[in-house]
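In keeping with the milestone schedule agreed at the kick-off meeting, the structural modelling team has produced records for the first pair of proteins. Each record is given below as a sequence line and a structure-token line. The laboratory manager (R.T.) confirmed that both were archived under the project's standard naming scheme.
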Amino acid sequence: MTEAILLVGGKGTRLRPLTVNTPKPMVPAAGVPFLTHQLARARAAGVEHIVLATSYLAEVFEPHFGDGSDLGLSLEYVTEEEPLGTGGAIRNVASRLHSGPDEPVLIFNGDILTGLDIQGLVSTHSSSGADVSLHLTRVEDPRAFGLVPTDATGRVTAFLEKPQTPEEIVTDQINAGAYVFKRSVIDSIPTGRPVSVERETFPELLSAGAHLQGMVDSTYWLDLGTPQAFVRGSADLVLGRAPSPAVPGRCGDRLVLPSARVAPDAKLTGGTVVGADAVVGEGARVTGSVLLAGAVVEPGALITDSLIGAGARIGARTVVSGAVIGDGARVGPDNELREGVRVWCDTTLPAGAVRFSSDQ
């Protein structure tokens, strides 16, 4: 198996305002665009050719990654003119694949941070003779996910949408967003319209008697779709809890990119990342947070579990906890922004303007 499709077309609505100017897979996690970690892990598993299915802000991917040679990959880019859903996006790039009808193609989503044994999933696919193989993971509370029960051999028996009652929770296995498709199955997906693999393709294949195989891999797995999850995922990469060969430095309590400036008495902990040309002033405390390129944290500020956008400035003594500050925003001194607060790009908050928390 030498090729893959990477689905990177989502708008990243839940991550706004960070995704106003940047598509979600390109938001930096642990010092590099999140997509870099996925590409590096795929290459380490033996993948050589990857087609990126792009849509939202599609123009930013190719200038950054080019033909993929810097990563040891061959990359191609296909842009959807209209959103096509997961299945439609997969079908839309099929013409760029080199695999024969019975050969496997890896497919994964551009917002999942995982320690998945990619080679193990491909081996499961080959040994079981499946038409499609799915990475499954177990979660404590599966109510927010689609359930995927399997029989004793790992063969998928049903796809159950988000359960609402205890009786509906028949398994703790969920679809973890990585698949191996037999190439001929990709070619059978309808063209020219939106298609969901989760709601349409997989249930229809199952009804038609196709062999869908599940492989439970309960290593690290996290959907980075929310600000809280994205911050956690970045920190886990820095701390070494989530595996990636692309972290630009040694794992530890913090990651400071070479061009950043951090005051000697500032304290950075919990997997904090300080991006290129960012500045952390005297006495500031930053815990488990991401400061993007050119962000400034003024003296005495306290930043916890937050995302600070590119070029944003946090004023002296300001407290930011569990918040998202958009690119270019200016938060004046002596503010207090707590759980759930989002400050839009280029917004200016005067000194002492906000002293309350928000669940918005």
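The second protein of the pair:
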Amino acid sequence: MKNLVEELKWRGLFHDMMPGTEEQLTKESTTAYIGFDPTADSLHIGSMVQIILLVHLKNFGHKPIALIGGATGMIGDPSGKSDERNLLDEATLNKNVAGIKAVLSSFLDFNATDANAPILVNNYDWMKNFSFIDFARDIGKRITVNYMMSKDSVKKRLGADGEGMSFTEFTYQLIQGYDFQHLYKTHNCLLQMGGSDQWGNITTGTELVRRMGGEGAKAYALTTPLITKADGSKFGKSEGGNVWLTADKTSVYKFYQFWLNTSDEDAEKYIKIFTFLDKNTIDALTEEHKTAPHLRVLQRKLTEEITILVHGKEELEKAIKASNILFGNSTSEDLKGLDAATFLEIFDGVPQAEISKSDIEAGINIVDVLNEKSGFLKSNGEARRALSANSISVNKEKVTEEFTLSAKDMINNQFVLLQSGKKNYFVLSVK
């Protein structure tokens, strides 16, 4: 077997592992799992590390299991949290589980039939029939309270600065630990992976496997580092909040811009973590970037690769066109190819004015559009001077004083884009 751990180390995807993990992964095809809690009906880019880890696992000849925490999601993982999560009702939880299944299915083919085909499971399926008494008797007695109290996720909450934790959250590590035992028993799953903040929960699982799996039962753990930006700030957020993996929550244009605006230092790190480019290719790109950093070679390749991975090549091309509308050469046809949401995102913060659709359909002289109808320019005289200087564009096309704005100039039947010079934009919202 190719050495997965070596691959993860040079990519910056390795944090820690239990003794014997690397040997197991190089010895034979191994089944491993990662859990995803359904706290929302999608996943954001903070989950990309774990998704990519499952894909690497498959590519290296192992069998990945993606677990959605339908049961654990009802409780909330205390790891890395300073206070208790709000509990979700069943309808919300079901909606979230369905959304996460859809996201994961775009990266892993759960319908494949080969020996290492990925599996998608929901821990609610085996936890729903567990009575409290059964769980306390069969699982609770296997792990001491002392052992559970020693975990960082518990100690931090119970320490002097902590807010304490409910019994509900305290049991989380037992339930997650039982997930590992269940997958060990039903799928011969030998390895759990996750972020470094999950180490305590994962090792509780390995302990349950050892204590419940019979003589010779072994289980392993491997964690990835928590990703941060070079300035120390949290990865995965933009000014508008989380960057999601579905276009209904974060448009492809905004997703594209997030990665394109990565710093040089972060781009050098992220291209190893978030793409499947080989080491020679990445090293060559890094050297090319260092000789001409202004060309942003790393950022462009990173953005291209991850946008295709998450949204597909066609959506990447649309995002590039949308970006060029503001920052490069584009045409009226490019503008008219944008959907309304992307148009508004591109021109977010640009001054706007409403204009009557009936007025446009009747035809309006450009001088009146620029002054009286929009207030974009202060007077008819200023409008005429700008037109004479050939500095006015409508939908990215230069116009003269003879131009008449009409219905054919509307974008999506909703907008008209005015421009004075290179950077001075104004949006007419058609009502």
